[in-house]
Amino acid sequence: MRKLIYVSTLLLLLALPAVAQFPLFPTPAKEQLAKGSFLMGEGIQIQGNGGYADALAQKLKEELKAINKPAQTATGTIRIELRKELGMADESYQLTVTPEQIHLQASSESGLFYAKEALLQLARFGKGNVRACRIQDQPRYQWRGFMLDESRHFFGKEAVKQYLDIMASLRLNVFHWHLTDEPGWRIEIKRYPKLTTEGAVGNWHDPKAPAAYYTQEDIKEIVAYAAERHIMVVPEFDMPGHATAVCRSYPEISGGGEGKWLHFTFHPCKEETFEFISNVLDEIVALFPSPYIHIGGDEVHYGNQSWFTDPEIQQFIKDKGLGNEVGLEHYFVRRAADLVASKGKIMIGWDEIVDAGVSPEKAVVMWWRHDRKHQLVKALENGYRVIMTPRRPLYGDFVQYGTHKVGRQWGGYCPIEDIYRFPEPIIHLAKGYEDQIMGLQLSLWTERVADKKRLDFMTFPRLAAVAESAWTPAKSKECSLFMQKLPFFLQYLDTQGIYYFNPFAPASTPEPDAPDKEDVLKNG
Ligand code: ACM
């Protein structure tokens, strides 16, 4: 079957027009093809101009060894130059390829790294030849992200590292790590051991699944691995709702609830709750150098039934003049923002936080409710910086093809083309506030993603479209050209052992089985 896919992919590649035969993902801001090509192989000189450039030269040598034909000899030179005086913006780079020389230039380490990643893509796809060209590139958005929910299902260090490698190749630079929620708490906190002995037990399908979590050493390893690839890791510690795994471990700070929603929220008015959060934040802040901590803030109304009946909570609402339970929720979010600020960090919250009255200096908004566009506009009007991840088209748990059955469909789904075309259909809403749009991300919730095969299938190749939406200027985007060159990316995924959805041959990559019947969902 793989052979068949390979042959049909090859036929597709041969049929491409010249313009799409330049298979960079994401498409650069400016690319010019030139005559001839640079031959890769043994004998090539690779030189840096010191420091980081030398380290990158060493890395490139090793990476090219794995790509190049072993027997081929060549005589060209690759120059890797990091120079502030070039005055290039952060993350931007220039890559010039002639038959004799390849020149990578940047004024920032991240820019130079992206030049190397671009060259690797060209070397990989050229199979020993790099087509002569000149690329001048810089990103459209500073936040180019991928969110992985490991509370619902846990995938582990090796999966995360593989995804960080692919993200780096796609110039994605933020890994938003959803580590806490209802089914499981996934990060070791030394001061509160029950978070992992009890809170890490279970997942979406099996409340008794053995405890699965990252130790602090694992977290440090992954944060360092990401940093080497110029990826910032932003942890999410969800509150005041989606706190079930915490509150069943430490019921003294639970906000009550019953049945399905037992322990869904933190207790919103006990000082012990805020002490607990502050202590946990201390350990989180020490592990993640990111200036941002995500505190969730979404869907509190799902499970705050006890707030309406608990006399202590009702009295608190009266005493503080909060008006009602929504006022109490906003009070909680303001306190969370203050706590995060007191640790020297900026809070990120889902778009519910726009209504909480947090100062825009202290918070960034993640817009997720695609059916509430006014919430995006309100966030911008109120001075917040915004990251866009509207469910449609940027939630990876929505299906990507009309016949797929496992995953969400809400009056539509999230095909790769819709992701690619984002944010153009809604970007007029940000007119006048363009500077406040930090960027966008694909967010992958994993209620219906129980194993790596389904994780791969839901993520790829859609992640390549996310990268292009986040990086490539609108005027250089063209969906039909992107789709024409996509087979090159699929070839790369084959080398990584990824089970992706092939939009050119849907029947050849069937949807992996649903873990159970309930997973086959429509409109829910
Ligand atoms: C969310 O999907 N509840 C942010």
Structure description:
With 524 residues, the protein is of the alpha/beta class. Helix content is 35%, strand content 17%. Mean pLDDT is 94; it is low at 1-20. β4 (93-97) and β5 (101-106) form a beta hairpin. The protein folds into 2 domains: 23-137, Chitobiase/beta-hexosaminidase domain 2-like (Chitobiase, domain 2, 2-Layer Sandwich); 143-504, Alpha-Beta Barrel (TIM Barrel). Residues 298-299, 350, 368 line the site of acetamide (ACM).
Task: Please render the helix and strand layout as text.
Elements: H1 2-14, E1 30-39, E2 45-48, H2 51-67, E3 77-82, E4 93-97, E5 101-106, H3 109-126, E6 129-137, E7 143-149, H4 157-169, E8 174-178, H5 194-197, H6 216-228, E9 232-239, H7 244-249, H8 271-287, E10 292-296, H9 311-320, H10 325-342, E11 346-350, E12 363-367, H11 373-381, E13 385-388, H12 391-394, H13 416-421, E14 437-444, H14 452-459, H15 462-471, H16 479-495
Parallel strand pairs: 2-3, 3-5, 7-8, 7-14, 8-9, 9-10, 10-11, 11-12, 12-13, 13-14
Antiparallel strand pairs: 1-6, 4-5, 4-6
At a glance:
Helix content is 35%, strand content 17%. By secondary structure, the chain is α/β, with parallel strands linked by helices. The protein starts with a helix and ends in a 29-residue tail after the last helix.
